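Data availability excerpt. The first of two example chains:
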Amino acid sequence: MKPKVKMLRMVALLLFFIIFRLALGLPWLQVIPALLIFYLGSGGWQFLRVVIKTFPRDLSTGLMVMWTRTRIWWYVKQKYTIPKLFQQTAQRHPEKVALIFQGTDESWTFRELDEYSNQVANFLYGQGFRSGDVVTLFMESCHRFVGLWLGMAKIGVEAALVNSHVRKESLLHCISISQSKAAVFGSELTEAMQEVQSSLATSLLLFCSGDWKEDCVPPGTKHLDPLVEKAPRDPPPPSPKGFLDKLFYIYTSGTTGLPKAAIIVHCRYFRMATLVFNGFRMRPDDVVYDCLPLYHAAGNIVGVGQCLLHGMTVVIRKKFSASNFWDDCVKYNCTIIQYIGEICRYLLNQPSQDAERKHQVRMALGNGLRASIWKEFTLRFGIPQIAEFYGATECNCSVGNFDNKFGACGFNSRIAPNIYPINLVRVNEDTMELIRGPDGLCIRCKPGEPGQLVGRIIQSDPLQRFDGYLNNEANNKKIAHNVFTHGDSAYLTGDVLVMDEYGYMFFRDRTGDTFRWKGENVSTTEVEGTLSRILSMTDVVVYGVEVPGTEGKAGMASIVDPTHSYDLVAFAEEMKKELPAYARPVFLRLLLEVHKTSTFKFQKTELRKEGYNINLVKDQLYYLEPRQCRYLPLTEEVYKRIQLGLEKL
């Protein structure tokens, strides 16, 4: 029954009983039980069950959000900034260890981090940099990375945090789109800077941090470290910026096209770090193991933000290492670990070791943990809490699994869903086009119905504003209009989720990761998880490919098999037990490795383009023979028959 119809019925029922009472002169105490019995008998008991089940969860989260909102309101009014909040943290415990860099075991106290960032700020200010200027920061994760962008922020300079893996055209694009006046790069990336040096603007100042070799760096480059060391350690001139002004830029990794620069304002940094801290009940004495890249939000905001704002010690590792992961956790007494994408599966794929049960980790914090390995991960490594959350760098509709619900990435209240104006709306899962009703508005999904997560944009509300990208065209692609009401606008996540009757949300697929075959929608995420488990946690990438003369797209799986050791007969038998016929990959590709983004997302674009074309693919290809349900080699003859529509799939 529609909510409006149900509400009208209840109002009519209430009026009826009021009139009935007045007519018969019955006391109110007799009418109330009758109303309750009638309401429960007409189906209202289901809603009552939801209320009883979720009220404590919703109340505690609501109070936490209200407290965060109050603090944001005050910080906006007082023109606070992240550096100012860090200053307060540093004053509370100046000699506590703030950052540990695993690469050298070097550690900085809060006082040392504060003084280093002051030196950076004073040096740049002396060089003529002022509030609103942009400086590219291009280096691998380390403690200096944090001190550099924090120092820039102290005088209002905005750092463009460039992915250390980008090269040539992408690197030039990142520097130019941000209109940087200078670039600070790590000595480990000298070669990458030399490749683009001739195409850089002549006015761009270059600074190198790290091991200095004058004959290797681009001409005109200055060694930053000794210059910063000479700068005063006193606080720099105050920045005129406020809480809603730009802090830095984070480039979305994506899997296609050039990176997009997402705008991170001081308020967003605070909101993301603080909601995670409060929602997952972290403690100031926690030690966070951060092996994620610091040029992305997960590593630099969700991770390092706990240090800057809440006084935690954060262990920074330059690059994720599955073999050294638990040894590091034991060595540094870590209590919280961060993960993203496929990291948890890589850890499960490692041989057992003593360190994986000797650690003190009580929480795994991140996003992208597949339900297929969730339980195995917690049991093998003895981690009581999975702090899974959902939220892109730039989105305004983040959610969190604050009460350790198995498989969920977050929730929204079913009791008062409009307090946090996000929703799942119906979409065409092939095109991700919004499906609208007769009134022109989007259709909200019912529990159990998959839909795209969207968040209403309210620019006057710090929790619901959309700061967007530097590129207006990119902004337009992420905003839809007339979504909940006529005249409104909403942010499109591009991700398909499913919500249960209690409001818990479960990740289903990213844009383009669902395809239709044999009249059924196939979730690549689910199939990847199943096949990877069958193959002992190896890398598996699933995508849809077009086949002439067929409707929809056939499933294809690219499997990493460098030694060509897989028994495809046994694999097919196991797959039959795990997957319905429509979800079984029609084609297999065995390759040496699969390319991933720096946040461990599979890059599928080239794989989709090449498909099962034997003229383009040099790896071994197989197809699923439907009668035998066995994978047979894809020969040139079979390929031609498929292309002519003569081979039944």
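And the second chain:
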Amino acid sequence: MATLIPAIGTCVSRMTGGEKRLARRLEDKLEEDWLIWYDVPLGPRNVHPDFVVFNPRRGLLVLEVKDWRLDSIQEIDRQSVSLLTANGLKRQVSPLEQARQYAHEVVDLLKRDPQLTINSGRLQGTLLFPWGYGIVLANISRKQFDSTNLGEVIEPHRVLCQDEMSEAAEVEAFQERLWGMLPFTRSVPLALPQIDRIRWHLFPEIRIAAPSQNGLFAEDELEIPDIVRVMDLQQEQLARSLGEGHRVIHGVAGSGKTLILGYRAEHLAKVCARPILVLCYNQTLAKRLGRTMASKGLADKVVVQTFHQWCRAQLLAYNAGLPASNEDKNAFFGEMVDRIIRAVDANIIPAGQYDAVLIDEGHDFQPAWLKLAAQMVNPATNSLLVLYDDAQSIYGRDQRGKLSFKSLGIQAQGRTTILKINYRNTQEVLELASGIASELLKPTASDEDGVPLVAPISAGRHGPKPLLIKLPSIQEEADYIAKHLKEAHKTGTPWSDMAVIYRDYGIGKPVLATLRKAGIPVTYQDDITFAEKEDTVKFLTMHSCKGLEFPLVAIPGAGRTVDDGRKDEEARLLYVAMTRATRELVVVG
């Protein structure tokens, strides 16, 4: 079965009858290595072909679908057609000419990339794979087509007719009709990196920034990079298929949850009238998400805050009063949340303020917070997205108990998704991290309204084995880390690709002092801006590193003994810290 993006269930309401039938036939009658995009903006000019159909063995097709009946066509030539409609005669561009223009838009885009073209000989500069275009006449049979002079202006081999796309049509015959629109058959399939390059060019919105860029999505690039990063197909299909209503995504560390949230926020900002609210728990992740939205010119439309920042802003905006200062931060924050809940219940602070609410790190939100956030969604749009990974829950886990989303006003039954594949970490890093937290990662089932615990599956990417270094003192650990980071920088790793993640102040203070004494540029977590010019090593606590990733991660103080009652908590924190490393992990203790 082919992959349709978006999923048909989320786009069927905007499809014509012919488009629905074609989508189902393409899904059912093509093999699983076929990819189909329906009405997805394409290239920098955002053109909208009806269907883009791609196969690494066969090539790329652009298809336009028309639900015309034969008697509605009054006049047609190669460039235009006159149709009899309920509102009289209407002149429009010929669908074949429209498909041809879209196809050439694709080809001109892809031919810029030397890794997608033939680099020598008579065909130098042409694409490595065949491409073509055609039209689908959803309500005209082949017999009707042949009985007219349509074939004089529409090449018959570029047409798929009504009877050739019926449910009863033979698979081979259906496929042959599509292949007939291509000039030749490629015998050697394209490799996965080449497929990713094609997607990178055609769909700029799924590009992922390199870790050194500090944002979620790649900025517009003047030059085509040698290595491109894009959402994987499951992530892209999910991001494009979220649709309306309340949604919950359960995903393991490194499965791209935050990436999907960023895509969703950008999409909603283009179609919503009121602001979109993005909430997360830790301040560092909020900064990163905020910078991504600002870089896309969406800072005025997408509000990114930690939950407690948002609470404070709401209390001030509606004169609901902040609690008295309290040295006990937890008590202060608790009272602040209680006040806003009471103010919303009393209609002092209005509900439904935002056209969409998106929650990252939902596993760190207390149930009352999730309930409050759900109340902030405009009932007219009813757009709520919660991202969740119970394995990364490091705040108040024991006090939360069994969670029911429905009891919190989150109506996500039938609209939950589980992401099991970890794309961030190499298999070597993931195996070590999973081994540390093995008892905490045993999969547990849940009903659809609950929270399952999902064990990560490696995407199979390999890298160097993590370094596990045992040293007698924290100062020697700090010296070792400083030396390792300097050596990595000498061999080409930018400072911004590195992070040091520590457990608490007693560990962090001597390590930070040693790095600075060694001349290593370091930015402490409260000062991180994620600006491009910030070519520094990031210095973060384990609590503040979630949602972030770096090619090289060093973790000091990992060998400390802890009380038996805290072993699970410490293992969970170490798991979170280790899974920040995309390539190289150094653990000392």
